Amino acid sequence: MTARFPRRARLLKPAEFKAVFERGFRVHERGLTAVAAVNKVGHARLGLAVSKKALALATDRNRVKRQVRESFRLHQARLPSVDLVILVKPGSRILQSPLRQSLERLWTRISASSVVSSAAAPSS
After folding, report:
1. Number of structural domains, the chain?
2. What is the CATH number of the domain that holds 96?
3. 38: Cβ–Cβ under 8 A, 6 or more apart, which residues?
4. Strands, E assignment, 30-105
């Protein structure tokens, strides 16, 4: 997969989001929460859930979503086959903190997760 963000790399349907929330594990990082669930499509997929409660201004919500998509686009080749939903925590000061570094740490923690590693390993 190239460093693009095609439709196949996105979670689009409500059922896909619901499946991630039901069977996924959570990884927390300064103002962000990622819910990740192992998938069978062979590459990482991203969904975003940024509420008005978390960021009241639409411009702020859109800025955060653009930055998350860009970071995912650059790191998707190194991520395991997981479906990810990124949430912004209400009351967080995500716009005042270095979002790029938080996302870098989030991708690293998801890649190193034992849940993802054990599910990706072939069973004998």
Report:
1. 1
2. 3.30.230.10
3. 80, 81, 82, 83, 115, 116, 119, 120
4. 32-38, 45-49, 82-88
Residue 81 domain flag: yes
Give the domain extent around 32.
7-112
Residue 117 forms part of a structural domain? no
Q: What is the pLDDT of residue 91?
A: 79
Q: Which residue has the tokens 């940024």?
A: 50
Give tens-digit pLDDT for 78-104: 999 999 999 999 877 777 778 899 999
Q: According to the model, what pLDDT value does residue 90 have? A: 87
3-class SS of residue 76? helix
Going by C-alpha positions, the residue among 122, 113, 124, 123 that lies closest to residue 37 is: 113
pLDDT at 20: 96
Checking if the pLDDT of 14 tops 80, the result is yes
